[in-house]
Design a protein that fits this description.
The complex is a heterodimer of chains A (about 170) and B (about 150). Chain A contains seven helices and four strands, in the order E-E-E-E-H-H-H-H-H-H-H. With about 170 residues, chain A is mainly alpha-helical. In chain A, about 10% of the residues are buried. Chain B is of the alpha+beta class. The chains are: A mainly alpha (about 170), B alpha+beta (about 150). Chain B: Keywords: Ribonucleoprotein, Ribosomal protein, RNA-binding, rRNA-binding.
Chain lengths: ~170, ~150
């Protein structure tokens, strides 16, 4: 039993699924479902079809180079069955999978051009507002008043003389 | 005043492409039955044979089955001549065949290897990929001659 990769969309083909097409030059194409198969028959190039992994890897949307990919390379040499080896491999698969998916999601989130452009400006605005409101959580107001460098630039408001006299006892 | 073009007035370029795609989809690959012309992929001398009987199966032969065929086209000096009635083993079929693990295989064309009544191939070479379903059908000789097993 072997888990193949769909030639078109690069998803895994589990046993019992999909179609294998053998061309006369002996090249074998695996397809996970008829969608990929029909696209292939239409002679579409997976590198140009937006929803495939081939496209996203080509356009830098997905992680391409990582040491975790080395573990998944196809090995044609069958290993003699060893119970310990099998057990360790299963544990390793889980761990490597987790590391790889974490790295891949980091790549998607933190890349400089940010694949998920979820309202960057919006997020910054909200962050600034939160900082202004909750600055007392970061640093005590007295310390802020003394050390002007920590303050956010204050907006100057013209206040009448009577009001400032009232506020002074409150601040203390 | 710019008006939006009505859909049926717009030239249907994509429609054309769609029609081409549909034609590909509609191509139903079926059994190998009487009058099916198959390619011969060994060096027995024949080039094309026409099936006259599928030995097993009511609807027709599939991948790995034996057929009786009549040679329609042959090389000038070969072991078989045009018009001869021969047995053949289907080594490539455009119709998908289910494998024991649940997946399906299909090839690009319909191809046959000529054999004698006992099942031994007449030719000495086999071209192109062959499926490993032949092992179960006890056509081991063809598998050994094959250059690639799918």
């Amino acid at each position: 039993m072997r888990l193949e990769k769909c030639w078109f969309c690069s998803s895994t083909v589990y046993p019992g699924h999909g179609i294998q097409f053998v061309r006369n030059d002996a090249k074998i194409f695996h397809f996970c479902r008829s969608k990929c198969h029909k696209n292939f028959k239409m002679k579409r190039n997976p590198r140009k079809v937006k929803w495939t992994k081939a496209y996203s890897r080509l356009h830098g949307k997905d992680m391409t180079q990582d040491s975790t990919f080395e573990f998944e390379r196809k090995r044609n040499r069958p290993e003699r069955y060893d119970r310990n080896l099998a057990e360790n491999t299963l544990k390793a698969i889980k761990k490597i999978d987790k590391i790889r998916s974490d790295r891949a999601s980091d790549h998607i989130k933190n890349k400089s051009f940010s694949r998920l452009k979820t309202g960057k400006v919006q997020r910054q605005k909200e962050a600034r507002k939160q900082l202004e409101l909750g600055i007392h959580l970061v640093k005590a107001p007295l310390a802020l008043a003394q050390d002007s460098s920590l303050c956010l630039p204050k907006i100057k408001v013209n206040v009448s003389q009577a009001q400032t006299e009232e506020n002074q006892p409150m601040e203390e | 005043m710019w008006q939006f073009p009505v859909s049926d007035q717009v030239p249907q370029i994509s429609g054309n492409r769609q029609a081409c795609g549909n034609r590909f989809d509609k191509q139903q690959r079926t059994f190998i039955q009487m009058r099916t012309v198959l390619k011969v992929v060994d060096n027995s001398g024949a080039k094309k044979v026409m099936c006259i009987q599928a030995l097993k199966g009511k609807k027709g032969a599939r991948l790995g089955d034996t057929i009786i065929a009549s040679v329609k086209e042959a090389m000038p000096n070969g072991k078989v001549k045009k018009g001869k009635v021969v047995y053949g083993v289907v080594v490539r079929a455009a119709m998908q065949r289910g494998r024991c693990d649940g997946s399906e295989v299909k090839f690009d064309d319909n191809a046959v290897v000529l054999v004698d009544k006992q099942g031994q191939p007449i030719g000495t070479r086999v071209f192109g990929p062959v499926p490993h379903e032949l092992r179960q059908k006890k056509h081991v000789k063809i598998l050994t001659l094959a250059e690639h097993i799918a």
